[in-house]
Write a structure and sequence with these properties.
- It is built from 24 helices and 28 strands.
- The chain is an alpha/beta fold.
- Helices cover about 30% and strands about 20% of the residues.
- A hairpin with an 8-residue loop joins strand 1 and strand 2.
- It binds ligand MGD (2 copies), iron/sulfur cluster (SF4) and molybdenum atom.
- The site of one ligand MGD has 31 residues, from helix 6, helix 14 and strand 23.
- The site of molybdenum atom has 3 residues, from loops.
Length: about 675
């Protein structure tokens, strides 16, 4: 029996490997044995379609040839030494273990001396990270799962949690079905399976959440429902935020959001009078060019009503299983371990001394983000791109541009499976995955879990941290990377967090799972900001016109690009084909019937999709994005690489598209 954390979503369910089967771990403190379907089929797909040996080709026209690990390290050493640090770029993932992330980050920021490293969290959690830091001074989630047990109101904003965080949503639903008086609000342009379980579904126009939240603040202010003593003692920026909110009276907001005015009052009522209100939000609020503003507008409501700790919490749902661990290790282009930042001198010198490297080694300027890096490759300024544990040939926006960059750059792909990005690579490195290596991951509520090894990796696959350690040795940094196990990496990395908000220093593999921080991160209502207070922000709205709005997102049983879940016939059942969800009235106007194939156009390209009717707001369309080259359906050829100005997170949830119906009939002319 070996414990591990589920390799899929950020709920972070504690699981057990028992004789080749997966079970929930009843002793896991955060998730208590609960699990959904996805990990049950993990044993079946673990060894299907794996990368087994390092492979190389000089030119992308040639076929790959198998090489041994020594040759792979030689190629890499030569390459890394021949290029300047600004010509290198690393793109990693929230699905790596904390040990992997720490070693890679140390190697890149400390020893290659470049901050050109980013993670797929840029497409995911970068927005709430920025918003949390602006509002509270740190991006640690303020509450924990225990708060789901005694709250009476839950607001799911831009989250299809029944599909995407199922164990968490069902925990709340269970209380409701057992007769407790609980309000669930869902804010989503689509009547999702989650929305169907809500008491109040606010089906607004996409991207107008800021208007809704401002209008609620307007009502709370006008009706004397602000918690003034909380605001006076613990909040800055109230006046400025109110001044902006007053531009959105409910009547106007109802027109912009295209929702009944009464719903805005109903929602405001819950903020005013619930016992305890938790807001849970995800990519519907994050993946927007106004994402940080949307997040802040929701956080404003919590601060204005004092809904923190015993009265509630703004709780951003983490997408990937270890995006939290990545944040602890500072894996974005500006981060350093222990919630540190390259822009702060004391943080750099701490890490330089800790890593025993000369002062001034770590660059003070954040590196480029992944979408910027794509442009820099095309400008010939970045020449080597090393991708670890992510499949960007499918998941980055504006794919035509991405593919062009991938064709041009010297590309290293380090993955467990042959994924869609591999076809662009020069060098393929086979990685061990969950269960084939040891390490830790942190779930959404800050619980750190131990992930044990229960099977050998296939072929010559190696743990990610080990691959970088071996390379570092060959680059001459051996004494700094002399780890002989992931446990040794953990013992080192935890010291970087001592005395920090995310203090892991007292944890050890033997006594996990354990949560860092107290139940409420800001229990004493002291915030790690300059003033010690939290902060409200003015949240202006910018309207975006669109013909049809294309929303992209997830399916119930598939994990992103389906490298694992897509290989299980059980999980694929009912999800064999991509689709386009459409409002039947829009369809009728265009002469489309269910089952028709239509073309969606944007960026001067089109994608062909089968129409499915559903309850989605008019002039909105929804399509899942994870179906790759094998399905000839590359949704991210349609999305643009426009990003939020603060978080640099791309706008994946709002693309103005048009629809073309093409029906072919051929008649045979007979003489
Ligand atoms: N089954 C499954 N679960 C997963 C994943 C998976 O691949 N498959 N991936 C994990 C990861 S990494 C992540 S980040 C999470 C994502 O989890 P979610 O964010 O819940 O999933 P999405 O389907 O991307 O989008 C959620 C909802 O946002 C809505 N939305 C779009 N635009 C707007 C808007 O402007 N306003 C509002 N209010 N709503 C809007 C969409 O209609 C959609 O229903 O899921 C995690 N869990
Ligand atoms: N249009 C659109 N695009 C989106 C989104 C959207 O909502 N709409 N959502 C975005 C979000 S939130 C996210 S998180 C991304 C996800 O996008 P990606 O991270 O690109 O997608 P995954 O399929 O999860 O890719 C994970 C890869 O890691 C590999 N892998 C698994 N375990 C290991 C391991 O231990 N080591 C190594 N080296 N490899 C391993 C898998 O085989 C797979 O190839 O997509 C983003 N893109
Ligand atoms: S809810 Fe998420 S973490 Fe839990 S078993 Fe399902 S996919 Fe895994
Ligand atoms: Mo994500």
């Amino acid at each position: 029996m070996v414990p591990f954390q589920c390799p899929y979503c950020g709920v972070g369910c504690g699981l057990l490997w028992v004789e080749g089967r997966v079970r929930g771990d009843k002793n896991h403190t955060a998730t208590k044995g609960e699990l959904c379907q996805k990990p049950l089929y993990y044993p079946k797909v673990m060894k299907k379609g794996r990368l087994l040996k390092p492979m190389f080709r000089d030119s992308k026209e040639e076929p790959f040839r198998e090489i041994d690990w020594d040759t792979a390290y030689e190629i890499l050493t030569r390459k890394l030494k021949s290029l300047s640090e600004e010509e290198l770029y690393f793109y990693i993932s929230g699905q790596l273990m904390t040990e992997d992330i720490y070693v890679i980050n140390k190697f890149v920021k400390g020893f290659l001396k470049t901050n050109n490293i980013d993670a797929n969290s840029r497409l995911c959690m970068a927005t709430p990270v920025s918003a949390y830091k602006l509002a509270f001074g740190s991006d640690g989630p303020p509450c924990t799962y225990e708060d789901l047990e005694d709250a009476d109101t839950f607001v799911f904003a831009g989250s299809n949690a029944l599909w995407t965080h199922p164990v968490l949503f069902k925990r709340i639903l269970k209380r409701k079905l057992e007769g407790e008086s609980i309000n669930i609000v869902v804010i989503d342009p689509v009547r999702t399976e989650t929305a169907k379980r809500a008491d109040l579904h606010i089906q607004l126009r996409a991207d107008t959440d800021t208007v809704l939240f401002n209008a609620v603040l307007y009502i709370l202010y006008k009706e004397g429902l602000i918690n003034h003593s909380f605001v006076e003692n613990y909040v800055e920026g109230f006046e400025e935020a109110i001044r902006e909110a007053l531009k959105y009276p409910p009547e106007l907001a109802s027109r912009i959001c295209q929702i009944p005015e009464g719903q805005i009052y109903q929602f405001a009522e819950l903020f005013a009078h619930s016992k305890k209100l938790i807001s849970l939000w995800c990519q519907g609020l994050n993946q927007s060019s106004q994402g940080v503003i949307k997040n802040l507008a929701l956080i404003n409501l919590h601060l204005a009503t004092g809904r923190l700790n015993e009265r509630g919490c703004p709780f951003a749902l983490t997408g990937q299983p270890n995006a939290m661990g990545g944040r602890e290790m500072g894996y974005l282009s500006n981060g350093l371990p222990g919630y540190r930042d390259v822009r702060r001198e004391e943080d750099r010198t701490f890490m330089e001394d800790f890593w025993r490297i000369p002062r001034g080694s770590i660059k003070p300027k954040p590196g480029h983000t992944i979408t910027e890096a794509i442009d820099l490759i095309l400008e010939d300024r970045i020449k080597l791109l090393w991708i670890v544990c992510t499949n960007p040939a499918i998941t980055l926006p504006n794919l035509q541009k991405v593919w062009k960059a991938f064709e041009k750059v010297f590309l290293v792909v380090q993955d467990a499976y042959w994924n869609d990005t591999c076809q662009f690579a020069n060098l393929l490195l086979p990685a061990a995955q969950m269960g084939e290596k040891e390490g830790t991951m942190t779930g959404s509520d800050r619980t750190v879990s131990y992930c044990g090894k229960f099977t050998e990796p296939p072929g010559e696959a190696k743990p990610d941290w080990f691959i970088f350690t071996e390379l570092a040795k060959r680059m001459g940094y051996g004494e700094h990377f002399s780890y002989s196990s992931s446990g040794e990496v953990f013992e080192e990395l935890k010291k970087t967090t001592e005395g920090r908000l995310c203090d892991l220093s007292s944890l050890s593999y033997q006594d996990l799972p354990r949560r860092w921080g107290s139940r409420w991160l800001y229990e004493g209502l002291e915030f790690p900001t300059k003033s010690g207070k939290s902060k409200m922000h003015p949240t202006p709205y910018n309207h975006k016109p669109a013909d049809f709005i294309l929303i992209t997102g997830r399916t119930k049983n598939q994990w992103h690009t389906m490298t694992r879940t897509g290989k299980s016939s059980e999980l694929l059942k009912g999800e064999e084909e991509p689709y386009l969800l459409m409002n039947p009235e829009d369809a009728h106007e265009l002469g489309i019937v269910e089952g028709d194939y239509v073309e969606i156009l944007s960026n001067r390209v089109s994608v062909r999709l089968k129409v499915k009717f559903g309850d989605i707001k008019r002039r909105h369309l929804f399509a899942p994005f994870g179906y790759g080259f094998a399905y000839e359906c590359l949704i991210n050829t349609l999305t643009r690489d426009l990003t939020d100005p603060i978080s640099k997170e791309p706008e994946l949830k709002f693309t103005s598209v048009s629809i073309r119906v093409r029906r072919f009939v051929s008649y045979e002319l007979k003489e």
